[in-house]
Amino acid sequence: MRKYIAIPVYSEGTAQSIAFRTHREMRYSMPSSSFIDEYSQALWARSFAQRAKPFMTSSGTVNHILDVLRYRGAQKYNDRIHQRRLAKQLGRCDPLVRPSLLARMRDQPLTPQTFRYDRAIGVEIECMKPVGKEVEVPIWARAKGDGSIRQAPNTEGVEYAILIKRSELEHRLYKFCGLISDHRVNTSCGLHVHIDCRGRTEDDVRKIAKKMTAWMIALREFVPESRRNNTDYAALSFSETNRYRAVNFTAFRKYKTLEIRLHSGTVDYTKIIAWIRLVELLFVINGKPKGGAEGVAALSQLPLTEYERSYWLKRHQQLNPGHYNSSTPSTETE
User: Which of 79, 84, 194, 265 satisfies CB 3.0 to 4.6 Å to 122 for a cystine?
Assistant: First the structure.
């Protein structure tokens, strides 16, 4: 079993100092707990031997340098352990513990460049979590408070921002929805989807935004009435300066995305993934709804799969009971 010790990068002067002391055959012993494999030992030794070549007169210099490196590595390890014990006794945080890779990633901006995604989907889920509950979100997600949410008793408003590689969307989104399955939503919550527009010009994205706005107007019956008439945060009109539109064009200038804000808040995986797929279809489809079609008529113009068409027709019936000669009020909250 190969074990390693952390060997710092020595300057040329330090390497020469090591070579000088090895010339005087100042040998040290290294504890077995700091053993490194022989191949790495040889590489490090040759590297330091070349940098300190003028000071080497003994044929055993490489082995002597190894002894010094092992000793220094072991001593640094023991010093760190000792200082951590002192810090713990004094009740201080450990200044020697470096942030882990995960901690550093959480401090980075949530952008495709950070994660080197070739194509990404961003999702913002506004909801209410139980008071005091802390959700340990993955590195590709962030959680923050949201003052626009009307909180129910014993809940706290929270917005989860998610950035997922498109090829991993279904799997990761399903797992994330499982993490927040006990969260609640109301009519003040929304679901925002960010479509990756990197590589497109502003004029291209502007045309797509206008086209998608027309489709959002035509398909507004597929979202609850609280979203159809929400002129404060998801108005059904195009604007180049106001981000509170069903299709937020201003997101392109800031994030290189096109944000779709029309859908109501939900933590249900089926509803979220169905909306994302519909938005992706509207993003690439050519043209606006024909003949001023709206509702089911507009939906019939889209090339949906049988399952997707069945889902949206059922959704339409749930959200518009009056269209189906039913007096039963809608109980939809998402």
Answer: 194
CA Rg value for the chain: 30
Tell me: the pLDDT tens digits for 155-208? Answer: 999 999 999 999 999 999 999 999 999 999 999 999 999 999 999 999 999 999
Domain ranges of the chain: 12-89, 105-324
- For residues 318 and 332, is the Cβ–Cβ distance under 8 A? yes
SS3 state of residue 147 = coil
How many CA atoms does the CB half-sphere of 16 hold within 13 Å? 5
Enumerate the β-bridge partners of residue 156: 129
Distance CA 240, CA 206 (A): 8
Question: What are the DSSP calls for 24-72, one per residue?
Answer: TT------GGG---HHHHHHHHHHHHHHTGGG---TTHHHHHHHHHHHH
Q: Is the separation of the CB atoms in 186 and 152 below 8 Å?
A: yes
What integer is the mean pLDDT of 116-139? 93
Please tell me the distance from the alpha carbon of residue 31 to that of residue 70, in angstroms, as a whole number. 8
Determine if the pTM surpasses 0.85.
no
Helix (H) or strand (E) holding 269: helix 269-284
Residues 6+ apart with CB under 8 A from 330: 224, 318, 319, 320, 321
Quickly count: other Cβ atoms within 10 Å of residue 306's Cβ. Answer: 7
Q: Which CATH number fits domain 105-324: 1.10.3470, 3.30.710, 3.30.590, 2.20.25?
A: 3.30.590
Over residues 27-65, the pLDDT tens digits come to: 433 333 333 455 555 666 666 666 555 555 555 555 566
Contacts of residue 105, Cβ cutoff 8 Å, sequence gap at least 6? 114, 139
Task: Note the helical H segments in 100-232.
Answer: 101-106, 112-115, 169-179, 202-218, 225-228
Residues 165 and 113: beta-carbon distance below 8 Å = no
pLDDT at 2 over 60: no
- The overall longest dimension of the chain from CA atoms, in Å, is 100
